[in-house]
Design brief:
Two copies of one chain form a homodimer. Chain A has 397 residues and is an alpha/beta fold. Helix content of chain A is 44%, strand content 15%. The first copy, chain A, has a seven-stranded mixed beta sheet with strand order 2-10-9-8-7-3-4, sandwiched between helices. A four-stranded antiparallel beta sheet of chain A has the order 11-12-15-14. Chain A has a two-stranded parallel sheet with strand order 1-13. In chain A, a hairpin with a 7-residue loop joins strand 11 and strand 12. The interface between A and B is large, with 72 and 72 residues.
Chain lengths: 397, 397
């Protein structure tokens, strides 16, 4: 039997990147490719305790079917969390839904807003998981380039004027893959543009609580007077990704449609995980927990940057993140970046080629690669950077 | 701000059914509306034990990111389970993916196979959750009517010839909502038609292990020589629905595309739940567990049927299921079925109007309603049937 698949799924072709990531799954390879939180950042003991208590005290609440919007107590707690920590929930206008990880939040935004052929704007580069989710809905992605402070405002305005996009997808804090943080100035300007051109903003903030340097910048959602911002958060980086719990704060009509969409996707999110997230949010000393996370990631990031400073060729540029999980390295134009990434594997090191993160794989060129510092051990970081530093000599002419 | 939603989500209109279901959520109402397994059928103690052991012995495996295809040990165990219990896995040709409930399996089938405007065939009536999932992908649903033995074969052939559908969606065992089981003869004929017309079959078997009467009928998948059948199963009715763990056994190229689709939907299914399902499958005495479930549902079903036999007007027809959760009641043509369902609420009883389950809400008429017997207590069943029996006198002329 020859199967005919949908156009949208066929457009998601396996690429050279997948090939590299597949080779990188070998446990002997130093995994700068990961997007995982550091295992020492996952409070396993706390989760074990909460899980045992829940299954002891209210097993049927945790095991029967539940409602699509999410565990009511968690929804209420998250409304408060969003409002107080991020000014990202307006009690008069917004509502909140629990999703199966922020990935589902991203997908639901696309499902409820986009017809096939609609345009979605994104930072270029941006998170490949989200880009593929958009692609799987048959939308056209248009990337907007940027610099250390976030996307370029003239380019963003031009794109909004030209393409009439449904929304602009942005990760303002410690972006994946670039590690960059959008400045407060740019956030205000981006919001003003969204308002002027009637474009929604999909603000994805999975790393916001992982800041270890610099000053917090308010969310774009905090500026949202007109109901233009769909704000997504996640427990994957502050609690545990295996639980698959994320959430969306957005104007109530959008959440209502997302609820209809989610009903057809998975009925509801694993309810035990939602109940664990609720206890985490209300019973754990969060400022202390977040301070602990900052310690872990600060150390890892400082280590990788100091090794890179010491060993990398000076022609290689890289970002200096104030939080999150990633450093973004860029070769001079014309370098065979993909060749470099491929050659690193037999040397025992894996990084993700920048082409994984471009909006348009057919036309966008990348000389960058992404490095994760949360997953490899300290020893692996030191050893891996030395290997990459040696290898890059062959690729820099 | 006025939001413009996607055509596919706008087409999922809230209807009179939702209004009735909303009213039915009042805990004082006798819930014949539910689709939940009986709470006494959920082995909470076993789940508590497995969960504690997993979080004690291998917390990071349960809490870190995992792979999209699913927990490898669970996938292997399920391949064996499908093969041995249902002849529903061909080791040479098929592969298997873990999904976030069977609902996601249904959605993924549509995502990978259907373009907007493609036709999907379904039994008429069929499970509203699946129908809405199909609708959310912009497909055209065509319903095929049937009788006690399943869909009508002439009608199925006519529909395959006329519409060139992508697949035929069918729940052969104890169908939702009708409670009917498709005969072995019809399963063979349906497979032969699928083969003749090159149509895939999406076989949904969430209730297969809940048989309490009659003889097991082999799955359609067991006939699958040509790689035409996508088989979905679930832990929702045999373990716990709150865990959200389902699976698909299908030809490897289909599973490969589903994996790409799932990556963009939720990355992977909650991994602790998958590990619990694995232990359940390999450490629990399944024949004994299934026998226990049969006891629970046999008792409930016999009780509701005997009360209906005793009290319902003889002009009301209803099915006599051999398993599963539902009885399907049908008024004589012309009865105001929706009025009856609505009037039951202030009397303290809720049932689901048959219009919820039709393929085309605009054209298909229903005089039926669905009753669940697994959720109400014995007392509620006796009391609720008496109320309905009294009320229906007003609606039968």
């Amino acid at each position: 039997m020859n199967y005919t698949f949908s156009d949208k799924i066929v457009s998601l072709k396996p690429s050279a990147i997948r090939e590299i990531l597949k080779m990188a799954s070998d446990p002997s390879i130093i995994p700068f490719t990961a997007g995982n939180p550091s295992s020492e950042a996952i409070p396993a003991e706390v989760i074990r305790k909460f899980s045992a208590e829940i299954l002891e005290q209210e097993p049927m609440a945790a095991l029967q079917y539940s409602i699509t919007e999410g565990y009511p107590k968690l929804r209420e707690a998250l409304k408060g969390f969003c409002r107080e920590r991020y000014q990202a929930f307006d009690g008069e206008r917004d509502d909140l839904i629990i999703t199966s990880g922020a990935q589902q939040a991203i997908e639901l935004a696309c499902k409820v807003l986009c017809n096939e052929g609609d345009v979605v704007l994104c930072e270029n580069p941006s998170f490949v998981g989200s880009l593929n989710s958009f692609r799987s809905y048959g939308v056209t992605l248009k990337g907007v380039a940027g610099d250390e402070d976030g996307v370029d405002m003239a380019a963003l305005e031009e794109a909004m004027k030209t393409y009439h996009p449904k929304f602009f997808y942005v990760i303002p804090n410690f972006q994946n893959p670039s590690g960059r943080t959008m400045s407060w100035q740019r956030r205000q300007e981006a919001y003003a543009l969204a308002k002027r051109y009637g474009v929604l903003i999909l603000e994805d903030n999975p790393y916001g609580d992982l800041r270890f340097a610099g000053e917090p910048v308010p969310t774009i959602k905090s500026l949202d007077e007109e109901g233009l911002v769909i704000y997504c958060g996640s427990f994957s980086k502050i609690l545990a990704p295996g639980l698959r719990v994320g959430f969306v704060s957005a104007p109530a009509p959008i959440i209502a449609k997302m609820t209809v969409g989610k009903q057809g996707s998975d009925v509801h999110t694993n309810i035990l995980a939602q109940m664990i997230a609720y206890r985490f949010l209300t019973e754990v000393d969060l400022p202390r927990h977040f301070a602990g996370l900052a310690e872990i990631y600060r150390h890892k990031c400082e280590l990788i940057l100091s090794e890179m400073d010491r060993q990398f060729d000076k022609r290689v540029a890289y970002t200096r993140p104030q939080g999150g999980l990633f450093v973004w390295c860029t070769f001079p134009e014309g370098t065979d970046m993909t060749g470099f990434c491929r050659a690193a594997i037999p040397q025992g090191v894996a990084v993700v080629p920048g082409t994984a993160f471009v909006a348009n794989e057919a036309t966008d060129v990348s000389y960058s690669f992404r490095m994760n510092y949360s997953t490899p051990s300290d020893e692996q970081i030191v050893k891996g950077i030395a290997i990459l530093a040696r290898l890059m000599r062959d690729y820099l002419k």
